[in-house]
Amino acid sequence: MAKSDPFTPTPADRFTFGLWTVGNPGRDPFGEAVRPRLAPAEIVDLLGEAGGVYGVNFHDNDLIPIDASPQETAQIKKSFAAALRRNKIKAPMATTNLFGDPVFKDGAFTSNDAEVRAYAIQKTMNAMKLGKEFGAKTYVFWGGREGAESDATKDPVVAVERFREAIDFLCDYSISEKMGYQFAFEAKPNEPRGDIFFSVTGSYLALIPSLKHPDMCGVNPEFAHETMAGLNFVHHVAQALEMGKLFHIDLNDQVMGRFDQDYRFGSNSYKAAFFLVKLLSDYGYKGMKHFDSHAYRQADRKDVIAFARGSMRTFKILESKVERFNKDRKIQSLLNKIHRENAKLGKLTKSFSKANAKALLAADLNRVKLARKPLPYEELDQLVFDLLMGVR
Ligand code: GCO
Ligand code: MN
Ligand code: MN
Questions:
Q1: Which of 5, 28, 45, 59 is labelled catalytic?
Q2: Which domains does the chain have, with CATH numbers?
Q3: Where are the beta strands (DSSP E) in the chain?
């Protein structure tokens, strides 16, 4: 990529990938791996070759296999650390694999078995230590196996209590060890479980105030997850932002209603991707932008690099479109027409007082006249299309 290309990413963009994303060998429920399994250090080298990447995130077992010996562990850590240095790549986020091993077949923090629950917390404590060794500041919780196929098997109220108990314990652990983590919860409606508890970002936003340390907890919404369920992802992110709880974000793409596709960001839903980037830009989101996606199964190493570059390029192109949108006179004048303020009424409804209530009841608000005011949303939306297609 030429230096003069305005869409060339730099570490200042805070783009990150996962060992499990660019390192994904393309195995699916119907077919074997199509790409060789790369060592963690090789994945970091691949990201270095892609260029402009800020960081690489990992699950404990992406880095250290669950059955690694102490010698193997030491060796892997050494070569991973060297690869991070060599490629000037950081490891800003870490997480626990609480879904892959058979022990988690019925959940981790919400398992019906107290020994499994204890093991899940223990495994997370060790993974938090591992994350700290590489400088991770955000710790993600995605409860892939926290769910059920049949509600005969688990009490969903007890599941919420167990999850809260585990998180409260781990928050205190982070505090007592001075780890300084911020926790980010990632919702998903289903897959791999028939139904996963805390199915949407809003579920976690509702849980957080009930935790022992709500201030250190936020969310890590993923584009594909609300979209799978046919919901508007942008609105979930907006609510998290409004609450000051958007600690991290997983970017990818997904056709509504399909299985978890983990497509390259922006590859399918141009318009939703645009409004997401607009939301993040307009509200000054400064956190990591993690591409939690997989290259198509047909991709070889070279094409995986194209996939990584494409993810970042798409984000930057959409950022430039946002800038255009915000500067476009026609669009802005339409927006001004649509957003009609009334200083006097605004004051009245801002907060309740007996006087305000009395004045509001007396206000002359004619519903027929109000309904007649024009709302040129067709015109506005077409301008968005023209802008995105590059003819504006
Ligand atoms: C998925 C999830 C995962 C998580 C990851 C980090 O649907 O598979 O998005 O990729 O993001 O486990 O918590
Ligand atoms: Mn996902
Ligand atoms: Mn994710």
A1: 59
A2: 11-327 (3.20.20.150), 329-388 (no CATH)
A3: 15-18, 55-59, 93-95, 138-142, 147-148, 182-186, 195-196, 217-219, 249-251, 289-291
